[in-house]
Design goal:
This protein is α/β, with parallel strands linked by helices. It contains 13 helices and twelve strands. It is elongated and about 85 Å long. The N and C termini lie far apart (about 70 Å).
Length: about 350
Protein backbone atom coordinates (compact mmCIF):
# COMPACT_ATOMS: atom_id res chain seq x y z
CA UNK A 1 0.00 0.00 0.00
CA UNK A 2 1.42 3.37 -1.06
CA UNK A 3 1.96 5.84 1.78
CA UNK A 4 3.21 9.42 2.19
CA UNK A 5 6.78 8.18 2.69
CA UNK A 6 6.68 6.62 -0.77
CA UNK A 7 5.39 9.89 -2.23
CA UNK A 8 8.14 11.86 -0.44
CA UNK A 9 10.83 9.52 -1.82
CA UNK A 10 9.41 9.67 -5.34
CA UNK A 11 9.17 13.50 -5.27
CA UNK A 12 12.51 13.95 -3.56
CA UNK A 13 11.03 16.04 -0.76
CA UNK A 14 10.58 15.66 2.98
CA UNK A 15 7.67 13.80 4.57
CA UNK A 16 6.49 17.07 6.17
CA UNK A 17 6.24 18.70 2.74
CA UNK A 18 4.00 15.90 1.50
CA UNK A 19 1.88 16.27 4.63
CA UNK A 20 1.45 20.01 4.01
CA UNK A 21 0.32 19.40 0.42
CA UNK A 22 -2.08 16.60 1.33
CA UNK A 23 -3.67 18.51 4.23
CA UNK A 24 -3.67 21.88 2.49
CA UNK A 25 -1.94 23.58 5.42
CA UNK A 26 1.15 25.77 5.67
CA UNK A 27 3.20 27.24 2.85
CA UNK A 28 4.60 25.10 0.05
CA UNK A 29 6.20 26.58 -3.06
CA UNK A 30 4.48 25.96 -6.40
CA UNK A 31 7.43 23.88 -7.57
CA UNK A 32 7.36 21.65 -4.50
CA UNK A 33 3.56 21.29 -4.75
CA UNK A 34 3.77 20.25 -8.40
CA UNK A 35 6.47 17.66 -7.63
CA UNK A 36 4.38 16.15 -4.83
CA UNK A 37 1.21 16.07 -6.93
CA UNK A 38 3.02 14.42 -9.86
CA UNK A 39 4.44 11.81 -7.49
CA UNK A 40 0.99 11.15 -6.03
CA UNK A 41 -0.46 10.67 -9.50
CA UNK A 42 2.32 8.37 -10.68
CA UNK A 43 2.05 6.21 -7.56
CA UNK A 44 -1.78 6.36 -7.54
CA UNK A 45 -1.62 7.57 -3.97
CA UNK A 46 -5.01 8.15 -2.29
CA UNK A 47 -4.93 10.31 0.89
CA UNK A 48 -6.39 8.81 4.05
CA UNK A 49 -9.32 11.20 4.58
CA UNK A 50 -10.33 9.54 7.85
CA UNK A 51 -6.93 10.10 9.43
CA UNK A 52 -6.70 13.62 8.03
CA UNK A 53 -10.13 14.59 9.34
CA UNK A 54 -9.32 13.12 12.75
CA UNK A 55 -6.18 15.23 12.99
CA UNK A 56 -8.20 18.33 12.09
CA UNK A 57 -11.10 17.43 14.41
CA UNK A 58 -13.41 17.43 11.40
CA UNK A 59 -15.47 14.75 9.72
CA UNK A 60 -16.47 16.96 6.77
CA UNK A 61 -19.87 15.29 6.91
CA UNK A 62 -23.30 16.80 7.59
CA UNK A 63 -26.38 14.81 8.52
CA UNK A 64 -29.68 15.85 6.93
CA UNK A 65 -32.85 14.55 8.61
CA UNK A 66 -36.16 14.87 6.76
CA UNK A 67 -39.53 13.07 7.07
CA UNK A 68 -39.29 11.43 3.64
CA UNK A 69 -37.48 11.92 0.35
CA UNK A 70 -40.54 10.73 -1.60
CA UNK A 71 -42.19 14.12 -1.18
CA UNK A 72 -41.22 16.57 -3.97
CA UNK A 73 -40.42 19.35 -1.49
CA UNK A 74 -37.93 17.30 0.53
CA UNK A 75 -36.51 15.67 -2.61
CA UNK A 76 -35.80 19.12 -4.08
CA UNK A 77 -34.50 20.49 -0.80
CA UNK A 78 -32.07 17.65 -0.09
CA UNK A 79 -30.77 17.59 -3.67
CA UNK A 80 -30.07 21.33 -3.60
CA UNK A 81 -28.61 21.23 -0.10
CA UNK A 82 -26.31 18.34 -0.99
CA UNK A 83 -25.06 20.31 -4.01
CA UNK A 84 -24.40 23.48 -1.99
CA UNK A 85 -22.64 21.63 0.84
CA UNK A 86 -20.50 19.70 -1.64
CA UNK A 87 -19.32 23.04 -2.98
CA UNK A 88 -18.04 23.80 0.52
CA UNK A 89 -16.20 20.47 0.74
CA UNK A 90 -18.81 18.73 2.88
CA UNK A 91 -20.36 15.32 2.33
CA UNK A 92 -23.93 14.56 3.40
CA UNK A 93 -25.64 11.63 5.07
CA UNK A 94 -29.39 11.58 4.47
CA UNK A 95 -31.91 10.20 6.94
CA UNK A 96 -35.59 9.77 6.07
CA UNK A 97 -37.38 9.25 9.40
CA UNK A 98 -40.32 7.53 7.71
CA UNK A 99 -37.96 4.80 6.51
CA UNK A 100 -35.58 4.54 9.48
CA UNK A 101 -37.11 3.94 12.91
CA UNK A 102 -34.04 5.06 14.86
CA UNK A 103 -32.50 7.39 12.31
CA UNK A 104 -32.72 10.58 14.36
CA UNK A 105 -31.15 9.03 17.46
CA UNK A 106 -28.44 7.35 15.41
CA UNK A 107 -27.48 10.62 13.73
CA UNK A 108 -27.36 12.50 17.03
CA UNK A 109 -25.12 9.76 18.41
CA UNK A 110 -22.80 10.13 15.42
CA UNK A 111 -22.70 13.88 16.02
CA UNK A 112 -21.84 13.43 19.70
CA UNK A 113 -19.03 11.04 18.76
CA UNK A 114 -17.78 13.57 16.20
CA UNK A 115 -18.43 11.30 13.26
CA UNK A 116 -20.39 14.24 11.84
CA UNK A 117 -19.78 17.97 11.96
CA UNK A 118 -23.42 19.01 12.20
CA UNK A 119 -27.07 18.14 11.64
CA UNK A 120 -29.79 19.86 9.63
CA UNK A 121 -33.03 18.82 11.34
CA UNK A 122 -36.01 19.03 8.99
CA UNK A 123 -38.31 16.40 10.47
CA UNK A 124 -40.76 16.30 13.37
CA UNK A 125 -39.20 15.49 16.73
CA UNK A 126 -40.72 14.81 20.13
CA UNK A 127 -37.51 15.67 21.97
CA UNK A 128 -37.62 18.60 24.39
CA UNK A 129 -35.60 21.72 23.48
CA UNK A 130 -32.90 20.99 26.08
CA UNK A 131 -32.16 17.70 24.29
CA UNK A 132 -30.89 19.60 21.25
CA UNK A 133 -28.97 22.25 23.17
CA UNK A 134 -27.32 19.55 25.32
CA UNK A 135 -25.58 18.12 22.25
CA UNK A 136 -23.22 21.13 22.16
CA UNK A 137 -22.55 20.55 18.49
CA UNK A 138 -23.85 22.38 15.39
CA UNK A 139 -27.58 21.79 14.82
CA UNK A 140 -29.81 23.83 12.50
CA UNK A 141 -33.60 23.55 12.52
CA UNK A 142 -35.08 23.72 9.05
CA UNK A 143 -38.68 24.99 8.85
CA UNK A 144 -39.36 24.15 12.48
CA UNK A 145 -38.51 25.28 15.98
CA UNK A 146 -36.31 23.09 18.18
CA UNK A 147 -35.92 25.55 21.03
CA UNK A 148 -33.97 28.55 22.21
CA UNK A 149 -30.33 28.43 21.17
CA UNK A 150 -30.94 26.38 18.01
CA UNK A 151 -30.96 28.54 14.85
CA UNK A 152 -33.98 28.05 12.62
CA UNK A 153 -34.11 28.75 8.88
CA UNK A 154 -37.18 28.53 6.68
CA UNK A 155 -39.52 30.32 4.33
CA UNK A 156 -41.70 33.26 5.30
CA UNK A 157 -44.97 31.33 5.49
CA UNK A 158 -46.84 34.28 6.97
CA UNK A 159 -46.03 36.18 3.79
CA UNK A 160 -47.17 33.18 1.74
CA UNK A 161 -50.52 32.98 3.53
CA UNK A 162 -51.18 36.67 2.95
CA UNK A 163 -50.31 36.36 -0.73
CA UNK A 164 -52.83 33.56 -1.21
CA UNK A 165 -55.53 35.35 0.78
CA UNK A 166 -55.09 38.56 -1.20
CA UNK A 167 -55.28 36.69 -4.51
CA UNK A 168 -58.39 34.67 -3.66
CA UNK A 169 -60.22 37.64 -2.16
CA UNK A 170 -59.50 39.77 -5.24
CA UNK A 171 -60.68 37.02 -7.58
CA UNK A 172 -63.99 36.53 -5.77
CA UNK A 173 -63.52 33.20 -4.00
CA UNK A 174 -66.43 32.33 -1.70
CA UNK A 175 -65.47 28.94 -0.22
CA UNK A 176 -61.81 27.95 0.10
CA UNK A 177 -60.84 24.34 0.86
CA UNK A 178 -57.29 23.88 2.19
CA UNK A 179 -55.78 20.39 2.02
CA UNK A 180 -52.87 19.70 4.35
CA UNK A 181 -51.32 17.49 7.01
CA UNK A 182 -52.76 16.38 10.36
CA UNK A 183 -54.59 19.13 12.21
CA UNK A 184 -52.69 18.12 15.35
CA UNK A 185 -49.81 20.18 13.96
CA UNK A 186 -51.83 23.23 14.96
CA UNK A 187 -51.97 24.49 18.51
CA UNK A 188 -55.49 25.82 18.85
CA UNK A 189 -54.79 27.73 22.06
CA UNK A 190 -51.37 28.99 21.07
CA UNK A 191 -50.15 29.97 17.61
CA UNK A 192 -46.57 29.29 18.66
CA UNK A 193 -46.03 25.99 16.96
CA UNK A 194 -42.96 23.89 16.23
CA UNK A 195 -44.28 23.58 12.64
CA UNK A 196 -43.77 27.01 11.05
CA UNK A 197 -45.27 25.77 7.77
CA UNK A 198 -48.76 25.81 9.31
CA UNK A 199 -48.49 29.56 9.65
CA UNK A 200 -49.67 30.06 6.10
CA UNK A 201 -52.84 28.15 7.00
CA UNK A 202 -53.37 30.26 10.12
CA UNK A 203 -52.83 33.52 8.24
CA UNK A 204 -55.00 32.43 5.31
CA UNK A 205 -57.87 31.49 7.61
CA UNK A 206 -57.53 34.78 9.52
CA UNK A 207 -57.48 36.95 6.40
CA UNK A 208 -60.41 35.17 4.73
CA UNK A 209 -62.51 35.37 7.88
CA UNK A 210 -62.12 39.15 7.98
CA UNK A 211 -64.00 39.49 4.67
CA UNK A 212 -66.48 36.65 5.18
CA UNK A 213 -64.93 34.07 2.85
CA UNK A 214 -65.52 30.52 4.09
CA UNK A 215 -62.38 28.58 5.05
CA UNK A 216 -62.35 24.80 5.42
CA UNK A 217 -59.39 22.63 6.39
CA UNK A 218 -59.28 19.04 5.09
CA UNK A 219 -56.73 16.60 6.49
CA UNK A 220 -54.76 14.50 4.02
CA UNK A 221 -52.67 12.48 6.45
CA UNK A 222 -48.93 12.56 7.01
CA UNK A 223 -46.57 14.19 4.52
CA UNK A 224 -45.63 10.83 2.99
CA UNK A 225 -49.26 9.67 2.62
CA UNK A 226 -49.98 10.34 -1.06
CA UNK A 227 -53.14 8.20 -1.01
CA UNK A 228 -54.46 10.48 1.72
CA UNK A 229 -54.05 13.47 -0.57
CA UNK A 230 -55.91 11.70 -3.37
CA UNK A 231 -58.80 10.84 -1.04
CA UNK A 232 -58.96 14.41 0.28
CA UNK A 233 -59.07 15.81 -3.26
CA UNK A 234 -61.89 13.45 -4.25
CA UNK A 235 -63.86 14.49 -1.17
CA UNK A 236 -63.73 18.12 -2.32
CA UNK A 237 -65.18 17.25 -5.72
CA UNK A 238 -67.80 14.92 -4.27
CA UNK A 239 -69.59 17.74 -2.44
CA UNK A 240 -73.12 18.77 -3.29
CA UNK A 241 -73.32 21.98 -5.32
CA UNK A 242 -74.58 24.06 -2.40
CA UNK A 243 -71.56 23.01 -0.31
CA UNK A 244 -68.95 22.95 -3.07
CA UNK A 245 -65.65 24.78 -2.74
CA UNK A 246 -64.71 27.18 -5.53
CA UNK A 247 -61.02 27.34 -4.57
CA UNK A 248 -58.48 24.79 -3.33
CA UNK A 249 -55.11 25.46 -1.71
CA UNK A 250 -52.65 22.63 -1.16
CA UNK A 251 -49.06 21.54 -1.62
CA UNK A 252 -47.86 20.85 -5.16
CA UNK A 253 -49.05 17.26 -4.75
CA UNK A 254 -52.59 18.18 -3.72
CA UNK A 255 -52.85 20.96 -6.29
CA UNK A 256 -51.68 18.71 -9.14
CA UNK A 257 -54.20 16.04 -8.11
CA UNK A 258 -56.92 18.71 -8.08
CA UNK A 259 -56.13 19.68 -11.67
CA UNK A 260 -56.28 16.06 -12.78
CA UNK A 261 -59.56 15.47 -10.93
CA UNK A 262 -61.10 18.64 -12.38
CA UNK A 263 -60.17 17.59 -15.90
CA UNK A 264 -61.57 14.10 -15.30
CA UNK A 265 -64.89 15.48 -14.04
CA UNK A 266 -65.20 18.27 -16.57
CA UNK A 267 -64.87 21.05 -13.99
CA UNK A 268 -63.62 24.29 -15.55
CA UNK A 269 -60.41 25.63 -14.03
CA UNK A 270 -60.21 28.48 -13.14
CA UNK A 271 -63.77 29.69 -13.89
CA UNK A 272 -65.54 27.17 -11.65
CA UNK A 273 -62.62 26.28 -9.38
CA UNK A 274 -59.37 28.06 -8.64
CA UNK A 275 -56.33 26.07 -7.53
CA UNK A 276 -53.25 27.41 -5.72
CA UNK A 277 -50.17 25.28 -5.05
CA UNK A 278 -47.70 25.85 -2.22
CA UNK A 279 -44.00 24.94 -2.66
CA UNK A 280 -43.07 25.41 -6.30
CA UNK A 281 -41.20 22.16 -6.93
CA UNK A 282 -40.79 20.36 -10.25
CA UNK A 283 -44.24 18.84 -9.74
CA UNK A 284 -45.86 22.25 -10.27
CA UNK A 285 -44.75 22.04 -13.92
CA UNK A 286 -46.26 18.57 -14.43
CA UNK A 287 -49.84 19.12 -13.29
CA UNK A 288 -51.46 19.21 -16.73
CA UNK A 289 -51.72 23.00 -16.79
CA UNK A 290 -49.51 25.75 -15.34
CA UNK A 291 -50.26 26.03 -11.63
CA UNK A 292 -50.53 29.29 -9.75
CA UNK A 293 -48.01 28.67 -7.01
CA UNK A 294 -46.41 30.21 -3.95
CA UNK A 295 -42.81 29.30 -4.63
CA UNK A 296 -40.25 28.74 -1.90
CA UNK A 297 -36.76 29.94 -2.80
CA UNK A 298 -34.77 26.71 -2.59
CA UNK A 299 -31.52 28.34 -3.65
CA UNK A 300 -31.71 30.97 -0.91
CA UNK A 301 -32.87 28.43 1.67
CA UNK A 302 -30.07 25.95 1.04
CA UNK A 303 -27.42 28.66 0.75
CA UNK A 304 -28.53 30.11 4.10
CA UNK A 305 -28.45 26.69 5.76
CA UNK A 306 -25.00 25.93 4.36
CA UNK A 307 -23.56 29.33 5.32
CA UNK A 308 -24.98 29.09 8.83
CA UNK A 309 -23.61 25.56 9.23
CA UNK A 310 -20.13 26.65 8.16
CA UNK A 311 -20.17 29.45 10.74
CA UNK A 312 -21.25 27.02 13.46
CA UNK A 313 -18.56 24.52 12.50
CA UNK A 314 -15.91 27.23 12.41
CA UNK A 315 -16.88 28.35 15.89
CA UNK A 316 -18.56 31.59 14.93
CA UNK A 317 -21.96 30.63 16.33
CA UNK A 318 -22.25 33.97 18.07
CA UNK A 319 -22.80 35.61 14.68
CA UNK A 320 -26.36 34.49 14.02
CA UNK A 321 -26.92 36.59 10.93
CA UNK A 322 -27.64 34.65 7.76
CA UNK A 323 -26.49 35.70 4.34
CA UNK A 324 -29.51 35.41 2.10
CA UNK A 325 -28.02 37.20 -0.87
CA UNK A 326 -29.87 40.22 -2.22
CA UNK A 327 -32.97 39.45 -0.15
CA UNK A 328 -31.26 39.24 3.23
CA UNK A 329 -32.66 42.57 4.33
CA UNK A 330 -36.20 41.43 3.50
CA UNK A 331 -35.66 38.22 5.43
CA UNK A 332 -34.52 40.07 8.55
CA UNK A 333 -37.44 42.50 8.41
CA UNK A 334 -39.84 39.57 8.10
CA UNK A 335 -38.69 38.28 11.48
CA UNK A 336 -39.79 41.42 13.29
CA UNK A 337 -43.05 42.00 11.43
CA UNK A 338 -44.92 38.76 12.16
CA UNK A 339 -44.84 38.65 15.95
CA UNK A 340 -48.53 37.77 16.18
CA UNK A 341 -47.91 34.47 14.44
CA UNK A 342 -45.19 33.07 16.68
CA UNK A 343 -42.08 34.17 14.83
CA UNK A 344 -39.08 33.88 17.13
CA UNK A 345 -36.12 36.23 17.16
CA UNK A 346 -33.72 33.37 16.32
CA UNK A 347 -35.59 32.51 13.13
CA UNK A 348 -34.30 33.54 9.71
CA UNK A 349 -37.03 33.79 7.10
CA UNK A 350 -36.56 33.65 3.34
CA UNK A 351 -39.19 35.50 1.25
CA UNK A 352 -41.53 33.50 -0.98
CA UNK A 353 -42.99 34.58 -4.32
CA UNK A 354 -46.39 34.20 -5.98
CA UNK A 355 -46.18 32.90 -9.53
CA UNK A 356 -49.40 33.33 -11.51
CA UNK A 357 -50.48 30.39 -13.65
CA UNK A 358 -53.56 29.18 -15.46
CA UNK A 359 -55.34 27.84 -12.36
CA UNK A 360 -56.51 31.18 -10.93
CA UNK A 361 -58.58 33.94 -12.50
CA UNK A 362 -55.81 36.54 -12.26
Amino acid sequence: MVGMRDVAKQAGVSLSTVSLVVNGTGYVSDDMRDRVQRAMESLHYVPNDLARNFSQNRANTIGIIVPTIRHPFFATLTADLQHVLAGKGLQTLLCSTADAAHGEAAYVDMLRRRLMDGIVMGAHTEHAPDYWTSIHRPVIAFDRTLGEGIPSIGSDHVQGGRMIADLLIRTGARHVAVIGGPHTQFKEDDVRTTFPTVRYHLVLEHELAKVGVRYEYIEAGEVMDFSGYAAAVRSVFDRASDDAADAVVSSDIGAALCVREAIRRGVNVPDDMQIVAYDGTYLADMAGMPLTVVRQDFQALTSSVADCMMRLIDGRAGDDSVDDGDDSGDAVSAVSSHGAFGIGEAEHLIPVSLIAGATTRE
